[in-house]
Amino acid sequence: MYHFGQWRKNILNICHLFMLMCRFSLLLLDLEEHYFEQHTAYNLTARGPEANRRTSGSLKICSKSIIFEPDDAVKVFFFFFSQIYLIKEENMVAPYKYERVKKRVTFQLEVPGKTEDIVQILLQLHRASCLDKLGDQTAMVAAILQSRLARTCFDKNSFQHVTENPHMECVAEMVSPLVTNAGHVCITDCNLYFQPMNSYPVSFCAIHGLEVFCTENDLCSDIYLKFYSTKERDELYYYIATFLENHIAECTAESYMLQWQRGHISNYQYLLHLNNLADRSVNDLSQYPVFPWVISDYSSTQLDLLNPASFRDLSKPIGALNTERLERLLERYRDMPEPHFMYGSHYSSPGYVLFYLVRVAPEHMLCLQNGRFDQADRMFNSVGETWKNCLEGGTDFKELIPEFYGSDSSFLKNLLGLNLGRRQGGGRVENVELPPWASDPDDFLEKMRLALECQYVSEHLHEWIDLIFGYKQRGSEAVAAHNVFHPFTYEGGVDCDSIEDPDQKIAMLTQILEFGQTPRQLFVTPHPQRITPRFHNLSATPSLSSSELSPLSPSMESFEDLTEESKKMAWSNMNKLALQSCHKIHKEAVTGIAVALSGDSIFSTSQAYGRRQDTLMGHDDAVSHICWRDDKLYTASWDSTVKIWKCVADDISSNKRTQFDLLAEFEHEAGVNTLDLSPAGTLLATGTKEGTLTLWDIASPLPLNQLTCHSGKIHQVAFSPDSRHILSVGEDSCLVVTDVQTGMLIATVHAEQEQRCFCWDGNTVLSGGMSGDLSVWDLLSSKVIHKIPAHSGAVTCMWMNEQCSTIITGGVDKQIILWKPEY
C-alpha cells in the first residue's frame, strides 16, 4: 500500500497538473451536483460589433447548471437553472467572481443530431430546479441520473488487453473529497475498471461502499466506490477476491492490535489501520483519518522527548485538557435539555481537515466555502497558536490529521503562492509558523514522528484509542471520561430512513456531513497497553503487578540478552525438529506431561493413570492436567476444581511414595481440562469443558477475568513468555489470543483441523493436531509455515523446556516422543 504522505503528494500533483491543463473542475460544482455529459459547441454572439462571432469550447450539462468552457479564453461560464448568473473564473485557486447575465446566450452544437437529446435533458433538469422542495428536486435528479446510466454501458474498447474476459458490470459512483461522479464499473479476470458517464478524467475517489487499495507498483490510485445496490457491491467484492491475483485479505482490529503490541507495526501504522477499519478514509473529508496531538510544548527551543511534561495527556479528550474550560462546559452540559452533549463541535470535520490542508488543497476549501477562503486570522497560521486555541477556545476541540506525522511537509508551505489574505497586523498569510524547536518544516515533521513513536506515547497511546475508537467512545464510560459529543456525530445516532420529509432528511444529512462524524467503535473493552522495552511504570491492579507483566529487571537494558537470543534461534529452527527418542509406557492415550525442576524426572498421565490417582490427589474425578513449578504440583480435574500441592518428600525421584500437602483449591462451574502458570508463578489460567477461560491470582481464590472464548472444550491454555497474552486452543478448531491485563480477546485463528496442544513464544506456535502432525504457525499472519509428521493419531499434550531446546509430545498412540530443533 502507498505510504500515506507519498500517496497524497502524488494525488495533489495530478490534481494541480490537471487544473493547469483544464480550467473546469468538478470542485466548481455545488455539493451533490452531478455532471452528466459534455459536447463540443460554439457560443454565438447575438449582438454588437461581434455579432455572429463563434467561440468554440466545451458545453457541460450538470444537474444544477450549464457550463461553457471556451477553448481560447481563461474564463469558465456557469449558467444556473434557478438564477441565471455568469461566473468568471480566471484562477482556479482564487475566490470566485459572480456577474449577472444581461443578455441571451446561444449555443450551436458541433454534432446537430444530438440537439433533441440535449434539449430533453435540459428541460428535465430545469423542471427539477423549479420544484419547491429540495427533496423533490433531489429525487427527480436521481431519477434522471439512473435513466441516463441505464441508456449506456461500459465501453469494452477500453480494456487493456484484448484477451480480457468481463465477469460483471454495474453502475456506481466514484467520489473524491466533495465530489461524486457516476459511471460504470467493470471487473475482468485481470483488471477493475471505472468509466465515468461524462468521460471526465478521474484520478482517485471515495465514499461508503467498497474501498480498493493499490500497491506501490500498480499504475492506479486507490478508489472508493459507492454502489446503488448492496447486492452488486457484494458481487463485485466476490469477483475481486476470486479472480484477481492479489485478492483482498481480511484483517481485524484484533489482529492489528497483536502486531502493534509486539512491535511489528509502528504507532503510526497502527493508527492508520484503526482509522481504515473505522471507515475513515483520506477520500472522505467528513470521515478523514484522525490522529492525536501528542506534544504539548510548542514554545521551547529544544524538544525534550524524555520529559513527560513535553506531552499531552492522552487519557483525556482535547476538550478536557483545560480544567477551567471543562468546568464551564460541564455546567452547560448539566443544565442542557435532551439531547445532552459536552462539546458543540467535533474533533474532526471537513472544515478542520481543510483548515490544515488549505495550502495544498485550496480548490477544496473554495468548494466547501462557496468560493471563498476563510478570514486570514482564522487560517492555519501557526502550530503553537492552533494548539493554544485547542486548549483555550470555547468551540475548538480538533485533533490532528496523518500529515503531521508523514514525510511530505508541503501542507505547511505556500508553494502555490496563494493569496490567502492579510492578518490584522498587516502580514500576509504565507507559510505556517513552526515551534522554536523546529528548524524547518521537514525538521518539524521528523520530530513529530519521533514523538509519536517515543516511549511515553507508546505507553499511553492505548488511552487515546479508548476515547476515539474504544470503550470510552459511548455510554457511561464516555460521560465519565468527558467525551460526549452531539448524538448526530455517532454511527446510528440518527435514523435518517425514518425521516419522511425529504427536505428535513437532506438537511439532517448535510448537518452530519459538515459537523463531523465519530469513528465506528472498534473496541468495547479497555485497549491493552503496548509492550515496550524497559517497561516499568505500568498502571496495574494489585493482582496484575508491573513485575508480573514485564519480564525485565531494572538492570536490564532491553529484551535481548544471550538467553533470549538462544530462544529466538531455537524458535527460528522449530520447523527442523529432529526426533530423539520414542517411549511407549502407557496403556491409554497420554493426557499430560511435566518435568521435574532437576530435569531428571518426567511425569506423565494417561486416562487410566489419572483415575488411579484420584484418591492420592484428592479429586473426585480424573486428573485432566498437571503442571510442576518449583516444589509445587498443580492439578486440574474434571471435578471442576484445580488444586495446588506442596511436595514434602526429600527425594521425589526415588521409589518412595511421594507425599503432597494441599495448599489451595480453585472452584469452577464446569470440569477443568487444562491449566497454565505465568512465568513469574503469580497468575493461573484455566480452561474448562464448556469453553470458559479464567484468569486467577494464585494468592486469591477469586477470578480476575473470565470469558467464554471457545464454543466447546478448551484443550490447552498457555501464557506468552512476557505474560501479556494467553493462547488457547479448543475443539472448535480455533487458536485464540487473550490479553491478560484487560481480558480482551484480541485474535482468533481458524485452523483446518482441531489442535489439541501447543507451545508458543508469543509470535510463533508449535501445535499438535488431530492428524498426529506438529504444525508451526506464524500467529501474526495466521498461517501454517511447516508441518512435521509425529504421532499415529492425535497429539494430545506437549512440553517444552525453558531454553526451548527440548520438546516432549504425547499422543493417543500411547507414545511419548522427545524432539530437538536442529541448528
UniProtKB/TrEMBL annotation:
Residues forming the BEACH domain are 245-530
Listed name of the protein: Neutral sphingomyelinase (N-SMase) activation associated factor
State the organism named in the record: Cyprinus carpio (Common carp)
Q: Which InterPro entries match?
A: BEACH_dom (IPR000409), BEACH_dom_sf (IPR036372), BEACH_Domain (IPR050865), FAN-like_PH (IPR057496), WD40/YVTN_repeat-like_dom_sf (IPR015943), WD40_repeat_dom_sf (IPR036322), WD40_rpt (IPR001680)
Q: Where is the signal peptide?
A: 1-29
Determine the domain of life of the protein's source: Eukaryota
Checking Gene3D superfamilies in the record gives: BEACH domain, YVTN repeat-like/Quinoprotein amine dehydrogenase
Q: Which UniProt keywords apply?
A: Repeat, Signal, WD repeat
Q: Where are the WD repeats?
A: 616-646, 665-706, 707-748, 788-823
